[in-house]
Amino acid sequence: MDKFIIQGGRRLRGDVAISGAKNATLPIMAACLLCEGESRILGVPEVTDVQHLSGLLGELGMEVARAADGLRLKVVDEQPCHARYDLVRKMRASVCVLGPLLAKRGRARVAMPGGCAIGSRPIDIHLRGLKALGAQLDLKEGDIVATAKRLRGAEVFLGGAFGSTVTGTANVVMAATLAAGKTVIEFAACEPEIEDLANFLNAMGAKITGAGSPRVTIEGVERLQATSHRVIPDRIEAGTFMVAAGITNGEVRLSQARLDHMLAVVDKLRQIGLIVERADGGAVVSSNRRISATDVTTQPYPGIPTDLQAQLMALLCSADGNSVITEKIYPDRFMHVAELGRMGANIRKEGPTAIVTGVKRLVGAPVMASDLRASAALVLAALAAEGETTVSRVYHIDRGYDRIEQKLARLGADIRRVSE
Ligand code: EPZ
Which of 79, 97, 162, 378 has the most CB within a 10 Å radius? Predict the structure, then answer.
């Protein structure tokens, strides 16, 4: 198992290229179960979640090959339809194969994902949506067993207690592309990753309108034909590097970053004193003073993403004053709080809220990563801390960041990956 050793206190400077979005790539890979022929997905990040899904798709009769700058994907056998618990429990996004398998093969057996470090993550809304399209659903030995001769279009409401669902919307949109008739989804997730998925499906011959808005309409078609598609840049990776510039009082130029996908984040960073300037195909982010405290509330897109909550908390640990962070999507998503506390942060947690009292400087310490975004927050805190920090279990960060330590080192960070 690898860990990072980081000497803090260096100002980051230079250019970083943002990779393709993990959360766009995963549903797009699953969507290749729907079509005939070989698809090419470009700009695929080198992250372990992609490798993991490639393994699962391989078990479902798909050939997945790494090619220059991306993946080639082709279904060669439509018999297998079981997504085993052993694979699904390691990565929840595996549930995105449910809709495509059901729509294309008329049957699917997908393990229920189970528990997650960031909190309870049921899939009841996914199932509700697929049932509305006429799927027969049963639970057998912890697996969802789904059948449908042919799905049929319907009106589907995808709202839940915490807003809409991103992968739930993806599952229902993918299933509806091959259903008989028209589907109208109300309260669909509006994330850019959903829009990217819809663009890919439309390029394969689907008829989807309204993606990116709460109402999505899908006219079912008979078949989809493979195509080539470049995934959108990763707005969460971009946000993480913006925080890296701010937390080290540095100056970083991000290329291949879509600012129009992260206006709420940019607005918040400017509010607290970072300088974020648009630049060709990206942005230049710098900071030349102590940042101010603020309140942050996570929301569905276009609000502040929950996937940047931990990183923003790390930044606010050394802000001037008290910040209040409210987690509205995963109320228990605070595994990073205790670890930041080991680095001298002053954070009080009360239910889904954390009150962060800014300290002059964090100090280096051995800390433990618990999930993908929490581990990014610990790396960011370590960049600003006095002395040395060791971040263990970095396999969490490799799930969603493409060689982050190499990118940070090129910006001047003193960071090394060592195996434990
Ligand atoms: C996606 O997860 C992302 N993952 C997550 O990113 C992200 O945190 C999340 O959306 C929210 O933005 C991928 O895209 C692969 P949801 P997803 O269904 O689709 C509740 C990362 O770090 N809910 O939109 O699983 C749920 O519990 C990952 O890259 C139900 O109650 O999230 C949560 O509170 C972590 N029933 C809220 O809705 C359901 O059936 C939003 O979840 C589905 C969800």
Answer: 378
Q: Which two tokens stand for residue 285?
A: 């982010």
Residue type, 249: N
Decide: 97 and 33 in contact? Cβ < 8 Å: yes
Residue 415's nearest CA partner among 10, 66, 1, 35 is: 10
Mutate which of 118, 162, 311 for ligand 1 pocket (most atoms within 8 A of beta carbon): 162
pLDDT by residue (tens digit) across 258-309? 999 999 999 999 999 999 999 988 999 999 888 999 999 999 999 999 999 9
Q: What is the identity of the amino acid at 269? A: L
User: Atom 35 (ligand 1): residue with closest C-alpha?
Assistant: 307
Cite the DSSP H helix spans in 317-402.
335-342, 372-384, 395-398
3-state SS assignment for residue 11: coil
> Half-sphere exposure of residue 254, counting CA atoms within 13 Å on the CB side?
29
pTM of the model: 0.98
The pLDDT assigned to 380 comes to 98
Taken in order 253, 255, 258, 262, the sign of the CA dihedral is negative
Q: Which residues line ligand 1 (CB under 6 A)?
A: 23, 26, 92-93, 120-126, 160-162, 165-168, 189, 305-307, 329-330, 372-373, 400
| Residues 13/412, Cβ–Cβ less than 8 Å | yes
Could you give the 3-state DSSP secondary structure of residue 135? Answer: coil
Q: For residue 325, give the 3-state DSSP assignment.
A: strand
Contacts of 25 (CB under 8 A, 6+ apart): 41, 44, 45, 50, 231
Helix (H) or strand (E) holding 176: helix 166-177
Helices (H), 38-117: 48-59, 85-88, 98-105
Order of strands, edge to edge, in the sheet holding 322-326? Answer: 295-297, 322-326, 353-357, 346-350
Question: Residue 314: is its pLDDT beyond 80?
Answer: yes
How high is the pLDDT of residue 19?
98
Q: If you measure from the C-alpha of residue 197 to the centroid of ligand 1, how many angstroms do you get, rounded to a whole number?
A: 16
Provide the residue type at 72 as one letter: R
Query: 287 Cβ partners below 8 Å, 6+ apart?
Result: 245, 246, 249, 250, 273, 274, 275
- CA 417–ligand 1 middle distance (angstroms): 30
User: What is the bridge-based pairing of β-strands 62-67 and 35-36?
Assistant: unpaired
